[in-house]
Amino acid sequence: MTRTSGYSAIGGIFEYLNSDCDYPQWSQYLIKTLRESGAGPEGLDVGCGNGYFTRALCRAGYSVKGMDISPEALSAASLISEKEGVRTEFLLGDITKLHLCGRVDFITAINDCINYVPENKLLKTFKGAAANLKKGGMFIFDISSEYKIKNIIGDNVFVKDLDKATVIWYNTLKEDRVEMEITLFSLNPDGTYLRSDEKQIQYIHSEAAVKSMLEEAGFDVRTEGHLGGKEKQRINFICRKL
Q1: CA-to-CA distance for 87 and 45, rounded, in angstroms?
Q2: pLDDT tens readout for residues 152-180
Q3: Are 227 and 21 in contact (CB under 8 A)?
Q4: Hey, how many other C-beta atoms are within 10 angstroms of the C-beta on 5?
Q5: At what angle do helices 52-59 and 71-84 cross, to 10 degrees?
Q6: Which residues contact 145 (CB under 8 A, 6 or more apart)?
Q7: pLDDT-derived band of residue 192, with 50, 70 and 90 as boundaries?
Q8: How many CA atoms are closer than 13 Å to the CA of 177, on its beta-carbon side?
């Protein structure tokens, strides 16, 4: 058994574990949103995990690099991109300490990336995103809503049993966050399983508070539900740097 923190255990197979998230439809929503906003061609996909959205954006004609805080996730991202013939670059980095060599046309942070940022670092994070964007550049991200974390995720246990891995996560709801204890059983080539345990924290952010801080950081902001709908378990923020 190995005991880790962050995305050390599940980072290498994150995309596989989330294969039921309808990544194709989700990526098309993201591409459509960027095109409708008139975003330029150069971007950064932060919290890219194993790089699904990074690869989708590259295939759509954008010049995009992926960034993640997990070396394990990035290692898998590089291997998958090479296997699929997608030419891009993956960077190790933290969205709360974003510093690029040159400004980009857009930044994306998809699938709860911002929920991993505590509230006292949000404004700094948003200002950092603005500083790395060209004028008029787009910052597009989502959060799991207060309702989802408090009523669906918090104080619940979830199990996902797949051919190559089984994951169990226990969620404990606190005042401003949900603490996750995750156990992963991953299949080895010899047919045995490796057990890994890790802890994660997702923070609860209100739509109003996030919008207020984005505006303070210099963005024009609009919000919508998942895939552009009205359902608000997941809230999308479409932000343009003023």
Answers
A1: 14
A2: 999 999 999 999 999 999 999 999 999 99
A3: no
A4: 11
A5: 40
A6: 207, 232, 233, 234, 235
A7: very high
A8: 14
For the ranges 26-40, 127-141, 225-239, the lowest mean pLDDT is seen at: 225-239
pLDDT value, residue 6: 58
Could you tell me if 202 and 149 are in contact, meaning their C-beta atoms sit under 8 angstroms apart? yes
Place of tokens 């971007």: 43
Nearest to 115 by CA among 39, 180, 21, 183: 180
At residue 7's C-alpha, the angle toward residues 6 and 8, to 5°, is 100
Structure tokens at 134: 């060209």
Domains annotated for the chain, with CATH where assigned, are 2-145+204-241 (3.40.50.150), 149-202 (2.20.25.110)
Q: Which residues contact 112 (CB under 8 A, 6 or more apart)?
A: 47, 142, 143, 144, 202
Q: Is 141 in contact with 234 (CB distance < 8 Å)?
A: no
Beta pairing partners, 183: 168, 197
How far from 26 is each of 19, 35, 183, 237, CA to CA, in Å?
12, 14, 27, 14
Q: What percent of the chain has pLDDT over 90?
A: 88
Q: Which residue do the tokens 């309808």 mark?
A: 22
Average pLDDT, the chain: 94
How far apart are the C-alpha atoms of 165 and 184, rounded to whole Å? 7
